[in-house]
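Structure ticket #2291
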Amino acid sequence: MIETNKLTKRYGDLIAANEITLQLNEGDVFGFIGPNGSGKTTTMRMLATLLNPDYGEAYVCGKSIYTHPQEIRRLVGFMPDFFGVYDDMKVIEYLEFFAAAYRIDGPARRKVCEEKLELVDMTYKRDAMVNQLSRGQTQRIGLARVLLHEPQVLLLDEPASGLDPRVRIEIRNLLKRLGQLKKTIIVSSHILPELADVCNKVGIIEKGVLFANGHVSDVMKQVRQAIILNIRVQAELDRAAKMLEQHDQVASLKIDDGTMIVTLKPGILDYSDIPTQIIAANFKLTLFREEELNLETAFMELTKGLVQ
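Resolution: structure written out below.
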């Protein structure tokens, strides 16, 4: 559905997007993660045919951004991070205006608008004035607008930017529903936890360079060089730590607020004898778990250059 090959955009000496290569299939929800100014918006604007690249190629639904821009625009729904709304229009009028622009005519126009309002849980605001909506409500209306023409691809640039935590959760739940519709979605964010349970694929970008790209589990494996265990015992913490430091699977150990943070040697996957040894030494084990690796950790590790 989306394929790019070395897509590049320069502004003078600044390389906003540096040879971006992606491949997304139907139904993929791709989390585009990076700080502000990293190249996310530039890449999405090129895919939406709103910005011409300096180098490279991109295909959306099999169509080149160079030779079929008008066709791509009919297949794509692009929601920028900030967009204006027209004053003195009701929500339903606002949507009907854009539905008319998409050449949705007659009774079908009102039906489509009502359906999209229901999808984004904004039916109760159908007769409200658009310039009186909250930031979160405006974002929902923006999502409804880009869905009017049933696009196969959605490009959502920071859809939860500037929203309070409750509204961000609601937007995240909405993104999950959109993913279930089998649309191909690129959603960008600099708030990393937002995308952890929404996307099946992720890309981490900094200074225009895509450091990682692939399934979430594969990106995690790229970052995780060794398993980290969190271990607690009821008593004699120092003695337990000294014993574990001598274990042939342990690379390092530190103590943080009563918890032993144990880093295993690279390549160690089976560590089942460690808790057995702790119990055999008459320690009462109160905590033993593998430390989870999340997207935030992955981003921090990759952008520090620890993984190339």
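Closing remark: The two ends are 27 Å apart (CA to CA).
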